[in-house]
Structure of Membrane dipeptidase:
Amino acid sequence: MSGAPVIDGLQCGRYDRELIERMRDGGLRAVTITASFWEDALETMDVLTGWNDLVREHPDVALIARSGADIDAAVATDRVAIVLGTQNSSLFNDRIGFIEHFWDMGVRIVQLTYNIQNAIGSSCYEPVDTGLSRFGREVVEEMNRVGMIVDLSHVGERTSLEAIEASERPVAINHANARAIYEHARNKGTEVLDALVAHGGVLGVCTYNNIAGDYAATLDGSAELVARHVELLGIDHVAYGSDLDPNSPADNIAWMRNGRWSRKVQHGASRPDIAPPPEAWIDNFDFHKFGEVRDRLVERGLLSAAEAEQVFFGNWKRMYDEGFAPAGATQQEETR
Amino acid sequence: MSGAPVIDGLQCGRYDRELIERMRDGGLRAVTITASFWEDALETMDVLTGWNDLVREHPDVALIARSGADIDAAVATDRVAIVLGTQNSSLFNDRIGFIEHFWDMGVRIVQLTYNIQNAIGSSCYEPVDTGLSRFGREVVEEMNRVGMIVDLSHVGERTSLEAIEASERPVAINHANARAIYEHARNKGTEVLDALVAHGGVLGVCTYNNIAGDYAATLDGSAELVARHVELLGIDHVAYGSDLDPNSPADNIAWMRNGRWSRKVQHGASRPDIAPPPEAWIDNFDFHKFGEVRDRLVERGLLSAAEAEQVFFGNWKRMYDEGFAPAGATQQEETR
């Protein structure tokens, strides 16, 4: 299986040609990046400008994936397809009309909330989860219409459940684990995951050490984390989302955790009350490790080769093929 | 020729279904509207939201023209294709990266300045015309690259000349006349029009009374205004741009003339020092009049039927077919 293409469901680094070459050399053919955590519409457009610049300057190694066909092109030409995603809905400036504008600009996945409550709903860290707000219902409906995947990775349980039920299309949880496998506020409870699966969604198993514990510390642990999720959710609903942040400046963690909303120290997913989990085995430097986890699953008989390919490519590919297209679009209409 | 499709190169009204139906019934199959005069990026995106809403709610009468093929579709299905244009570059928030973002959102024509100097260059009313600025050169180059037509209707003479020379693609002057035919600061001098023609551009003859005088007051005068421009510039370089503003609220003129930049009374194109010209014969209410001017030209032998069709459809169509596509695009790549 060595050499089969990999899709990483979520990263949040800072990208340059050298990093994209390393990802390509490691076997990645699509990566969903984070274009904003807290940034509003204009700030996100400035970030997207940076992505347009990078891809325009380095078309021999990267392209923006506006459709599943673009990922096919990346695979065929040994390049990395960049899926433009966000980890917050702040880019919409609370305007339903901006969803289509950002789809036009290439954004294809938006996580409804980041670490705090917003106009759409509640985050996984809020003590009270209001569920999906009125605006949240409008947003889910509009994202379904234009072809933008709803992501629920940092979203609260009740908001997640209501978003899955409100959505007429499958949703993603591109970087989180099952609480039943590793207990953490950032991970998802059974009710949410049952609903995700029932509605055709996909969970990106995540070896970020704070939300995966010891599983993340070794190659075998990473493989077992995947295998346990497949047992729990079924092979069609498990993929991979590393949450890696390669090349990030030292203050990036503070930016992600605090944004501009608090002056007090915010811990994000880290838990100062317990011993810190060991460093993750999958790291920012060697992208071959994705394929090594996949191959280890097969070596150990935990998954068949076809099943492992689904986790590390096929399930995201299926979701992207369908989810990036406007509702009711034919092949020709897909790119508008 | 009755019934042949018409393209109006520039309007600045407020549109609803009823107005679009009237335009359709009058024979218009494409209209370039004004999405902003002074509005910045976010404000223009709000305006574009309104256009997306209108077209989504009334797809049986209107569509957004992202390519020449969309205008072909409008002609084939008796609908009005809306070309999203602006009469200022304020939507870019002085960012070269926003040109591509607005192209993605459907904008296909941008006028470099409105009535005052800006970061790109000078307007036709400024006492000193700086010419195309450094940012202006970046903008023209980028608009050429993405497939966004440069318009020079309210732009100063020197800035216009330098923009034409800097542009590798034909430019438009979608609503102005030749000073040689009617003297006015808003109209274009001989040097600019010679350069326009030499570089393949198109002038939209304009029956806005303040910049056309008595020509605009009658059907025959309107026809003569067109014929004189064809004599002057050649049949390939003359089209029509009414500058009509149907359905506009009473304060729209003040908004256009003053924007937010001045508290003093600004006159725009009106000249309080002379007797006001008569009301224009072409008005906001009967869109059949475009076709009547075209047919009168033929009746009077001023133009052949084929030439009149070029003025009222073919020249804009040619410019839009070529100008809306990214540089070097094939047919398939046109819509990205």
Remarks:
- The radius of gyration of chain B is 18 Å.
- The interface with chain A takes residues 41-42, 45-46, 48-50, 52-53, 66, 93, 95, 97-98, 100-101, 104-106, 335-336 of chain B (CB under 8 Å).
- Chain B has one domain: 6-326.
